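Let us practice reading a record.
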Amino acid sequence: MKRIKLVVAYDGTNYCGWQIQPNEITVEKVLNDKLTKLLGKEIKIIGASRTDSGVHALGNVAVFDTESTIPGDKFSYALNTLLPEDITIQESCEVELDFHPRHCETRKMYEYKILNRKFPLPTKRLDTYFFSHSLDIDKMMETAKYLVGEHDFKSFCSAKTQTETTVRTIYSVDVTRSDDVVSIKVAGNGFLYNMVRIIAGTLIQVGTGYYEPIKVKTMLESNDRTLAGPTAPPEGLTLVEIQFL
């Protein structure tokens, strides 16, 4: 028996998220089905991050166990011949049998992209959130400093969050603009349900002048979801990478 690690990229537009759901098409289901077809035995992968419906990834990670003689680095080639064009394995390799992607210390990077212009662009409709009102990037950058560090992010997660603690550590929050695209990159040791989308929604509100940057400090201290900004739409969010520390 050996354990294979996959680095998975996907356009989440047509999927109801990563995790298996009854009567829905998810990324995990497609990978299970294609690996089962490839290996002739039922395969169930274990994913590192359960992205939401409509959210994308450049580097999600999953593992599965197999007795196949296919070399670890060749699974990417074999599996990609079976996968739809909106899911692609970027890398595959053999890892230790006790490697579990959800039980390791990690650094995760997400990016939220906003198309900030007068009218939408059809070619960017799948991976950016269109927002026509002007945004003050300097104020958004000023706000970011309040989010960095270890905090209780209860105000920045969905009521559906099921976890022992809502304390997380954010290593960096970077807000930049390139032409019409505003990028919010958030790196941390882990994220709560909808956390990055709520951070993005809050920063957008700051960018419009609805909130002053210092207001975010109050949001964090309150542990009250109703005080933070709205949950930004899923299409702008991408899981960029997961680093195992």
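A brief commentary: The mean pLDDT is 96.
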